């Protein structure tokens, strides 16, 4: 990987010129986004890493690449071990690593538009015993070296109709204003892109696969607001939609607007707002109220229109997936397909719906050993043939104006081994345990997470990622604050009580390094449930994804009678929902896939 080695060397030269002994490069943008636009892909430019979560630390004599358990294999394939030390989080933190590796009295640079204030304080404290300091840079040094760095998107904003949003933007701003008054605040900073999109009922295409626009907002306690976005992105239709209560300002004016809030009590989210936002508010003399953005929970609890849209999106997406799975089963055994061939063909099936806006993330098309990397990303260099005897894992989703989807299925290419069937069935048992959980109000996803793992634990097995994430309504495919995960797993915290109306994924898995990966993912809606004869209303999950689960990978003897009943009922409902959307030949294939397990 000579190009990346050269880039690392060039960055070190630049850092020395700027009087820095090191620099931290996260995979995020100035909105703390999980998925970022091409202009913010600094980590990929520097290291070659193509995953969706990671951080690099560059010192004069060594460099470290930090990733979590989802990328243990992938990072080694894409990042040169001759230049980089691989460090796994959360077992080791960036702050902890710097405390042991930064030079005595070292000056470690960071971009304050790419880190939270909490990260800055924690890392600075870790450096202090060595006499080290954390130094904010006025300009990111990578930007000066990245000759062909893309420009931020100039795509226009689009209005999300109230019929799909379920509430008007004015109504949402009024609710935010009520929240501000209740907390004695004068204004709220909205810096998360999906929060801005949801609060103003607008969408965009500035971030691949996530329908958001690069923007910030300030909402006042009287319900008026300022939306900071490139002016050319706002057409007459969006101006009319926003109305007179919203003033559109250039995104470049955002920092100065923060500094102008002298004496104001300003609510700002310490988890979602970068350190530069806090610095600007401090510099202007605002009184800071570090509080979670109120949009986060409001957005997570879907209203009836959003729920109805989600069901519609799921139905058409499921029909496309059924067509795809039939095609794959008939085509793959010949050994002529590659991982990229499958990505393109699945996109075609979704596009044939006529209403696909985008994929909801880059499709994980992983055959054989690639499936053992939970977030594997196929590239021209890694593209592998799909061969008989392998397991093929496909994790994908669609963005539609009425909803966002995400689903994972595994298909055997010819006959699976007994071990594959055993592992798949244990994953299925964990999936069913989550899907059928009934729990009281106040339960967190951390309490549910073990349900998915017990069948694997009993065989001395596990998986190194959370069991489920929240999902947006034509927004982010990964949406907080709800999770099904232990706090130690990626995306595991904080512990958020599950509430009726939340959407989550259910995706336990198993990964055998060098051989195969298994994951079964559906989406679920949290609903109220009153057990017969019970004293209290409880909560439960209602599965919303209906695509057949591959029968050839199931070992029926490992299933209990209740698990068999769930699987048969799930397949019966899959057939009921999908059959009307399919041609006769595909319906016949689906009927066979959905027959009782026996």
UniProtKB/TrEMBL annotation:
Pfam families: Creatinase_N, Creatinase_N_2, Peptidase_M24, Peptidase_M24_C
Residue ranges of every copy of the Peptidase M24 C-terminal domain listed in the record: 538-597
Record-level Gene Ontology MF annotations: aminopeptidase activity
InterPro entries: Creatin/AminoP/Spt16_N, Creatinase/aminopeptidase-like, Creatinase_N, Pept_M24, Pept_M24B, Peptidase_M24_C, X-Pro_aminopeptidase_P
Enzyme Commission designation: 3.4.11.-
Name the record gives this protein: Aminopeptidase P family protein
The entry's keywords: Aminopeptidase, Hydrolase, Metal-binding, Protease
Enzyme kind, highest EC tier: hydrolase
Boundaries of every Creatinase N-terminal domain copy: 7-138
Similarity-based family: Belongs to the peptidase M24B family.
Peptidase M24 domain sequence ranges: 311-528
Gene source species: Sphingomonas molluscorum
């Amino acid at each position: 990987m000579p190009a990346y080695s050269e880039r690392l060397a060039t960055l070190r030269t630049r850092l020395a010129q700027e009087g820095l002994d090191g620099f931290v490069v996260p995979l995020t943008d100035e909105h703390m986004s999980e998925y970022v636009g091409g202009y913010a892909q600094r980590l990929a430019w520097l290291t070659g890493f193509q995953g969706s979560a990671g951080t690099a630390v560059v010192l004069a004599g060594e460099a470290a690449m930090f990733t979590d358990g989802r990328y243990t294999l992938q990072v080694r394939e894409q990042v040169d071990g001759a230049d980089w030390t691989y460090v796994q989080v959360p077992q080791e933190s960036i702050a902890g690593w710097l405390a042991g590796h930064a030079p005595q009295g070292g000056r470690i640079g960071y971009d304050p538009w790419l880190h939270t204030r909490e990260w800055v304080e924690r890392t600075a404290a870790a450096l202090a015993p060595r006499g080290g300091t954390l130094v904010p840079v006025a300009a990111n040094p990578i930007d000066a070296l990245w000759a062909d760095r893309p420009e931020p998107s100039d795509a226009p904003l689009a209005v999300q109709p109230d019929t799909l949003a379920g509430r008007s933007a004015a109504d949402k701003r009024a609710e935010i204003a009520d929240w501000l008054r209740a907390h004695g605040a004068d204004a709220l900073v909205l810096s998360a892109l999906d929060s801005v999109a949801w609060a103003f009922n607008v969408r965009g295409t500035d971030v691949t696969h996530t329908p958001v626009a690069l923007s910030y907002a300030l909402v006042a306690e009287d319900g008026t607001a300022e939306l900071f976005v490139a002016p050319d992105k706002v057409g007459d239709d969006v101006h009319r939609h926003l109305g007179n209560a919203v003033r559109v300002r250039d995104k470049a004016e955002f920092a100065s607007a923060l500094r102008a809030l002298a004496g104001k009590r300003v609510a700002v989210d310490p988890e979602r707002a970068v350190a530069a936002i806090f610095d600007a508010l401090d510099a202007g003399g605002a009184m800071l109220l570090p509080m979670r953005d109120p949009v986060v929970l409001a957005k997570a609890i879907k209203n009836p229109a959003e729920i109805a849209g989600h069901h519609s999106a799921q139905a058409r997406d499921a029909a496309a997936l059924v067509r795809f799975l039939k095609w794959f089963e008939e085509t793959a055994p010949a050994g002529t397909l590659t991982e990229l061939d499958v990505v393109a063909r699945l996109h075609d099936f979704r596009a044939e719906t006529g209403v696909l806006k985008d994929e909801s993330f880059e499709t994980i098309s992983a055959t054989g050993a690639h499936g053992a990397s939970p977030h594997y990303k196929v590239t021209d260099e890694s593209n592998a043939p799909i061969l008989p005897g392998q397991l093929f894992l496909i994790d994908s989703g669609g963005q539609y104006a009425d909803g966002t989807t995400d689903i994972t299925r595994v298909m055997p290419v010819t006959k699976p081994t007994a071990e594959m069937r055993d592992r798949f069935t244990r994953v299925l048992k964990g999936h069913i345990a989550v899907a059928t959980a009934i729990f009281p109000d106040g339960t967190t996803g951390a309490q549910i997470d073990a349900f998915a793992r017990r069948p694997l634990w009993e065989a001395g097995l596990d998986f190194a990622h959370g069991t489920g994430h929240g999902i947006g309504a034509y927004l982010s495919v990964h949406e907080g604050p709800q999770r099904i995960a232990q706090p130690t797993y990626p995306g595991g915290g904080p512990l958020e009580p599950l509430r009726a109306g939340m959407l989550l994924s259910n995706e336990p898995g198993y990964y055998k390094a060098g051989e195969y990966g298994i994951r079964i993912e559906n989406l679920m809606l949290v609903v109220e449930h009153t057990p017969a004869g019970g004293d209290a209303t409880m909560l439960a999950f209602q599965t919303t994804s209906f695509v057949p689960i591959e029968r050839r990978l199931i070992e029926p003897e490992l299933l209990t009678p209740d698990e068999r009943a769930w699987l048969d009922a799930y397949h019966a409902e899959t057939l009921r929902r999908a059959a009307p959307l399919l041609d006769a030949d595909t319906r016949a294939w689906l009927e066979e896939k959905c027959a009782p397990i026996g």
